[in-house]
UniProtKB/TrEMBL annotation:
This is DNA primase. It catalyses: ssDNA + n NTP = ssDNA/pppN(pN)n-1 hybrid + (n-1) diphosphate. InterPro entries: DNA_primase_core_N_sf, DNA_primase_DnaB-bd, DNA_primase_DnaG, DNA_primase_Znf_CHC2, DnaG_bac, DNAG_N, DnaG_primase, TOPRIM_DnaG_bac. Binds 1 zinc ion per monomer. PANTHER family: DNA PRIMASE (PTHR30313:SF2). Belongs to the DnaG primase family. It comes from Zemynaea arenosa. Residues 260-342 form the Toprim domain.
Length: 598
């Protein structure tokens, strides 16, 4: 868990204009910066970045957030990765309460990562330069229908057919980073003694693999003849784990947003060829089965994921593994589909033979996850027999157990029940599904919390816009807030707690980021503040104090009413009555003092 104080300090150090400006072309417009929104298509800029609020907001689609939120939404990073990325840029080291690694060892790891990253970047540039003079490689790519523009976009290159070509790039060819990055292979004898080294990639078309920040973390190399292996990937390294990365995701991010979906294919060439043919929203797994991490990364980028597989047995096996990786992440607001091409085609050949429109239609008609799951568990069994139906249920059980209790799971349960002559309640009971939906009558939905209005709304707005004001809210003020009612009290006390934890360094950006971690209830209010003009701090402070006094006065008046109707004698009421009068006088004096000319 990253400490809240670190997040606050980080947001105070980074400049959101610099962060967003790496990805969006911004122009000064008054107090803010303007640009075309990267989260939806638009022709005139409605995307603003405020240097004073350290916040971005789009008036077109409503997207908004801090520098951390921007990296998460734009690049698909997780929260921790986004924090680490920003921290690295301003020279901060992210603390980790569970991190037992000594500082010296952590510094050594960071130095190693930098050395590997530098080696891979230099090798990538070398391979790109070599491609220009490699006639055979250029002819091969042209034969596959690729233009120089697409090859340049993906940073493609060529590894010469030499054992030690990288000596031209790295004078210290024996450097440890070359072996650790997977660029070279050390030869060792039976006793384990090093006997020299040689380049891993030789006479291959080179596909650089980038992470979500655009850094080269590995390579895929493809032969141009019938050699084996057809594709050769970098080995697992501290920078590169195949089960975590997707080829082409960095290049495809904007195209995915524009298209509204991502197409997951099986190989590098599929991605590059589809980009050439009008489908730049394609990515590929790296010679490994689709993993849970892959699915999480994809669903951060878009609400619709379409897997494309060959129609043969190998394609079906790959699709089944992708299905299993997807199930824990299925939600009712995300769509996952499966596209199976004819056995004689991959995406590249299909588009070239039948055209882009035909491929787009195949994508539109891709099989939904629910249909694919039911087909998988019933296809090999005779469901006209009790044994076949039982076996289908047996195969379906682990798949349904992997899903969370969503409406989609209920629909699949109903479909399976219909196919196997059962009831949804019987399926849920037999499978021991967590939080069964069909077999328990659910209570009527609870009415949503009423929206804040009036005085409460003004208080919430001021506390979010200027969290440092929470430092002025004492115990009597909190007690007064409690008089506003349960839900109002919950909202206000939550904001006061977050704001006071931020302390004197609290800003609107830090407040917003911390609120987002615990509740989405304030998103609309945050968006409203982000899109409005900056409020003047001193006037807001005076207004907040006035609001708090008003609430305290109302609370004291109610207490007086209760006191008078309590049936107590004058003597019994006297002490508290005088205390209330004194408190009211004090509040009136405070108000008069603040209104007096200065």
């Amino acid at each position: 868990m990253i400490p809240q104080s670190f997040i606050t300090d980080l947001l105070n150090r980074v400049d959101i204009v610099d962060v967003v400006g790496r990805y969006v072309q911004l122009k000064k417009g008054g107090a803010n910066f303007m640009g075309l929104c990267p989260f939806h298509n638009e022709k005139s800029p409605s995307f603003t970045v405020s240097p004073t609020k350290q916040f971005y907001h789009c008036f077109g689609c409503g997207a908004h957030g801090t520098a951390i939120g921007f990296l998460i939404e734009y690049s698909g990073m997780g929260f921790i990765d986004a924090v680490k990325d920003l921290a690295q840029n301003v020279g901060m080291v992210v603390p980790d309460a569970d991190d037992k690694i000594p500082p010296a060892q952590r510094a050594a790891q960071q130095a190693q990562s930098m050395a590997l990253s530098d080696a891979l970047s230099r090798a990538c540039e070398y391979y790109r330069q070599q491609l220009r003079g490699a006639k055979q490689a250029v002819a091969y790519l042209k034969g596959r229908g690729l233009t120089g523009e697409v090859a340049a976009r993906f940073g493609m290159g060529y590894a010469p057919n030499e054992w030690n070509a990288l000596k031209a790039v790295f004078p210290d060819y024996d450097a440890l980073a070359l072996a650790e990055s997977g660029l070279v292979i050390d030869k060792v004898d039976e006793a384990g003694n090093k006997q020299g080294r040689y380049d891993r990639f030789r006479d291959r078309i080179m596909f650089p693999i980038r992470n979500t920040k655009g850094q080269v973390i590995g390579f895929g190399g493809r032969v141009m003849d019938g050699g084996e292996p057809k594709y050769l990937n970098s080995p697992e390294t501290p920078l590169f784990q195949k089960g975590n990365e997707l080829y082409g995701l960095f290049e495809a991010r904007q195209a995915i947003r524009d298209a509204g979906y991502v197409l997951v294919t099986e190989g590098y060439m599929d991605v590059v060829a589809l980009a050439q043919l009008g489908f730049p929203q394609a990515v590929a797994t790296l010679g490994t089965a689709c993993t849970s991490t892959h699915v999480q990364k994809l669903l951060r980028q878009t609400d619709v994921v379409i897997f494309s597989f060959d129609g043969d047995k190998a394609g079906r096996r790959a699709a089944r593994r992708a299905l299993e990786a997807c199930l824990p992440h299925v939600t009712d607001n995300k769509t996952i589909k499966f596209l199976f091409l004819p056995q004689e085609h991959d995406p590249d050949s299909f588009v070239r033979e039948r055209g882009a429109d035909a491929f787009a239609q195949e994508i539109d008609e891709a099989m939904p996850l629910s249909q694919f799951l039911l087909r998988e568990v019933t296809a090999d069994h005779d469901i006209d027999t009790p044994e076949g139906r039982a076996r289908a249920q047996f195969d379906a059980k682990p798949l349904l157990q992997a899903m969370t209790p969503t409406a989609l799971r209920l629909q699949i349960v109903r479909g399976l029940a219909n196919l196997t002559q059962s009831t949804p309640a019987e399926i849920e009971g037999l499978f021991e599904l967590s939080k069964p939906v069909a077999q328990v009558r659910r209570p009527p939905p609870r009415q949503g919390r009423p929206e804040p209005v009036g005085l409460e709304l003004k208080l919430l707005r001021h506390l979010i816009a200027h969290p440092v004001l929470t430092m002025e809210i004492d115990e009597p003020a909190l007690k007064a807030f409690e008089s506003l009612g349960g839900e109002s009290w919950e909202r206000l006390s939550l904001l006061v707690g977050i704001g006071q934890a931020l302390g004197e360094a609290g800003t609107f950006a830090a407040m917003s980021q911390n609120i987002k971690l615990v509740s989405s209830e304030f998103d609309g209010l945050i968006s409203e503040i982000a899109s409005s003009t900056e409020t003047e701090f001193d006037s807001v402070r005076l207004e907040l104090r006035s609001f708090i006094r008003q609430i305290k006065m109302d609370m004291l008046k109610e207490e007086l009413k209760t006191l008078f109707s309590s049936g107590l004698t004058s003597d019994q009421m006297g002490v508290r009555y005088r205390e209330i009068n004194a408190l009211q006088d004090q509040l009136m004096r405070e108000a008069a003092a603040e209104m007096a000319p200065r």
